[in-house]
Write a structure and sequence with these properties.
Structural class: alpha+beta
Largest sheet: 3 strands, mixed
Radius of gyration: 18 Å
Strand order of the largest sheet: 4-3-5
Number of domains: 2
Distance between the termini: 39 Å
Strand content: 15-25%
CATH architecture of the largest domain: Orthogonal Bundle
CATH topology of the largest domain: Arc Repressor Mutant, subunit A
Number of strands: 5
CATH superfamily of the largest domain: Winged helix-like DNA-binding domain superfamily/Winged helix DNA-binding domain
Length: 150
């Protein structure tokens, strides 16, 4: 796992390269994101910060999350939620690439890695002359626990 100051260095470099200010609020959001494991929504992060009495606006949380995604520190994951697309976020820096399975019954998100699947995707790209920059695989269905309940 990377050291906490690495994310700050990357983020402040990203902001500086775009002539954006490194504010207390942006750094507080960065610290909160990297103190969190798993997936989270922007509103969930905003409420969590309010409960901790960290003064940030909802707009600042949303804008900062977009900057974190653009900087490569955070990944945005889209999931279905009652026939709507819902954006969740997760730390990307210092983590291995993985895919997602999303239970449409209970909402659980399972992460998995599969080397043969990764190689197959790479082979398809090579065959078609496609240069992949990033990819995301999301499988939606019903988890084992919810299947056992029905």
């Amino acid at each position: 796992m990377p050291k906490p100051h690495q994310e700050r260095t990357i983020f402040t470099g990203y902001l500086g390269a775009r002539s954006l200010k490194t504010t207390r609020e942006r750094l507080a959001i960065l610290d909160e994101v990297f103190g969190h494991d798993g997936h989270f929504g922007a509103d969930e992060l905003y409420v969590k910060m309010l409960r901790k009495k960290i003064p940030v606006s909802r707009a600042t949380v949303y804008r900062t999350l977009e900057h974190l995604v653009e900087s490569g520190l955070v990944q945005k994951v889209y999931l279905s939620d009652h026939n709507q697309r819902k954006a969740l976020y997760e730390r990307a820096h210092g983590r291995h690439h993985h895919e997602h399975m999303h239970c449409l019954s209970c909402g659980e998100i399972l992460e998995f890695s599969d080397d043969p699947l990764e190689e197959r995707q790479a082979a398809v790209c090579r065959r078609l002359g496609f240069k992949p920059l990033r990819h995301s695989l999301r499988i939606e269905g019903i988890c084992a626990s919810c299947q056992a309940k029905s």
